[in-house]
């Protein structure tokens, strides 16, 4: 018999790297979740931009259960049909010519960074290992990816970090020109910065990165772990920038809730440098994850779904700006498709976590991006009524907190 569990068990049994809210969810359907007490919540967080098509979407459920009845795992000594079908689809839909699978965003970035260094060292010698990254960026929690990420709180306190990584400010053209040079093997950037507030990077700055990376034969890596897979209304955010990277990493929403990470790249980047044995993953490319991701992409890449993202985004942004003004809670609402960063007014400085808690008590789940930004990332196929119901609940939160 399975014993009943409660939030108190978390503190007793779990490593305390997280401190979750009190409720425990037991079921989800579309954009709604239910907790152990039977209370319902509108989901504007999507498990941090992961459940891109909501919960238990019928197409994904079918793909998962059909594959579950056929084949779960064979290892990379063999390939499998879903992995190849997904790879073909990703190459057809993007700049990519080669695909590498893993299980998370951090692993996708780990693969990208290793590939960039390997290729540079193979082609130009052992000095070409420098990685240019940006302050405030987030690329995952492995030791290499926290070191490359631009947030000292995640990378410090564990002894020496890997060498050759420099961080500059986004938008600082002079600094970019100064640090990119013959020793640079990669420039890595989130084209829309997620964890630090849903902040789009100026396409002109991305273009300069592209020019400098090409000039010095370094890899331009776009981390689209969060911005990809339809979140912005484009299939991948790079498609709206006029800049094409050499490597694109993604995860989160591509699995719709099933763990998968993907690195997309070109034949020129990969073929001579990521040769058999150089890199790998036990679970990467497993049939279950690939079957679900294929179904996710089939739904998301449809013109109706992407157009729906843009239409709902305009509506939600309008309402968010109106409530921001009415209650004096947001100074700015940044919108990137169904992905919003609501910048808190000075009188609410540091209180994004309070918004999250009060919203939860009002039956709304959203996330934060640092202490001063309320972050929303609803399902890309959220029903219009549920979007409005969630916005009503957020309005209640603003009303209560500003009272
Ligand atoms: C979430 C995130 C990651 C890390 O993904 P994990 O699956 O948690 O390893 C990396 N980059 C960006 C931009 C992210 O938002």
Keywords:
four-stranded mixed sheet, binds pyridoxal-5'-phosphate, 403 residues, Aspartate Aminotransferase, domain 1, seven-stranded mixed sheet, alpha/beta, 17 strands, Aspartate Aminotransferase, domain 2
Describe this structure in words.
The chain is α/β, with parallel strands linked by helices and 403 residues long. The protein has two domains: 7-56 and 303-402, Aspartate Aminotransferase, domain 1 (Alpha-Beta Complex), CATH 3.90.1150; 71-300, Aspartate Aminotransferase, domain 2 (3-Layer(aba) Sandwich), CATH 3.40.640.10. It contains 14 helices and 17 strands. The protein has helices at 7-13, 46-49, 58-68, 81-93, 105-124, 143-148, 152-155, 173-179, 203-215, 267-270, 287-300, 303-327, 352-361, 384-402, and strands at residues 25-29, 32-35, 40-43, 98-102, 130-134, 165-168, 184-189, 192-193, 199-200, 219-223, 247-250, 261-265, 330-335, 340-344, 364-365, 367-368, 373-376. The strands form four sheets. It has a seven-stranded mixed beta sheet, sandwiched between helices. The chain has a four-stranded mixed beta sheet with strand order 1-2-3-15. A hairpin with a 4-residue loop joins β2 and β3. α12 runs parallel beside α14. The longest helix is centred in the last third of the chain and has 25 residues, at 303-327. The model has no long low-confidence stretch (mean pLDDT 97). Bound molecules: pyridoxal-5'-phosphate. Pyridoxal-5'-phosphate (PLP) binds at residues 104-106, 109, 138-140, 190, 194-195, 223, 225-226, 251-252. Residues 104-106, 109, 138-140, 190, 194-195, 223, 225-226, 251-252 line the site of pyridoxal-5'-phosphate.
């Amino acid at each position: 018999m399975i014993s009943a569990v409660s939030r108190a068990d978390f503190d007793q049994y779990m490593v305390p790297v997280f401190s979750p809210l009190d409720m425990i969810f037991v079921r989800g359907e579309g954009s709604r979740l239910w907790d152990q007490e039977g209370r319902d919540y509108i989901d504007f967080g999507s498990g941090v931009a992961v459940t891109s098509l909501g919960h238990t979407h019928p197409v994904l459920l079918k793909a998962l259960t059909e594959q579950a009845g056929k084949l779960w795992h064979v290892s990379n000594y063999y390939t499998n049909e879903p992995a190849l079908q997904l790879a073909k689809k990703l190459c057809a839909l993007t700049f990519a010519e080669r695909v590498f699978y893993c299980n998370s965003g951090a692993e996708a970035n780990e693969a990208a960074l290793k590939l960039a260094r390997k290729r540079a060292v193979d082609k130009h010698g052992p000095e070409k290992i420098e990685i240019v990254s940006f302050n405030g960026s987030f690329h995952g929690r492995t030791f290499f990816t926290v070191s490359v990420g631009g947030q000292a709180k995640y990378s410090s306190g564990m002894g020496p970090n890997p060498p050759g990584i420099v961080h500059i400010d986004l938008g600082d053209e002079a600094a970019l020109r100064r640090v990119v040079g013959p020793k640079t093997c990669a420039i890595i950037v989130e084209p829309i910065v997620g964890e630090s507030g849903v902040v789009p990077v100026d396409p002109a700055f991305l273009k300069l990165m592209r020019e400098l990376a090409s000039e010095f034969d370094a890899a331009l890596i776009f981390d689209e772990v969060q911005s990809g897979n339809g979140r912005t209304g484009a299939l991948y955010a790079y498609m709206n920038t006029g800049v094409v990277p050499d490597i694109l990493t993604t995860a989160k929403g591509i699995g719709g809730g099933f763990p998968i990470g993907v690195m997309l790249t070109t034949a020129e980047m990969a073929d001579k440098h990521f040769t058999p044995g150089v890199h790998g993953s036990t679970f990467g490319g497993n049939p279950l994850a690939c079957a679900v991701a294929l179904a996710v992409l089939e739904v998301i890449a449809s013109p109706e779904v992407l157009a729906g993202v843009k239409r709902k985004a305009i509506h939600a942004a309008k309402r968010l700006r109106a409530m921001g003004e009415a209650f004096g809670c947001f100074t700015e609402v940044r919108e990137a498709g169904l992905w919003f960063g609501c910048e808190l007014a000075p009188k609410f400085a540091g209180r994004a976590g309070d918004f999250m808690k009060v919203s939860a008590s009002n039956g709304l789940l959203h996330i934060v991006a640092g202490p001063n930004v309320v972050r929303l990332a609803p399902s890309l196929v959220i029903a219009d009524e549920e979007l409005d119901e969630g916005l009503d609940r957020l309005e209640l939160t603003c009303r209560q907190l500003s009272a």
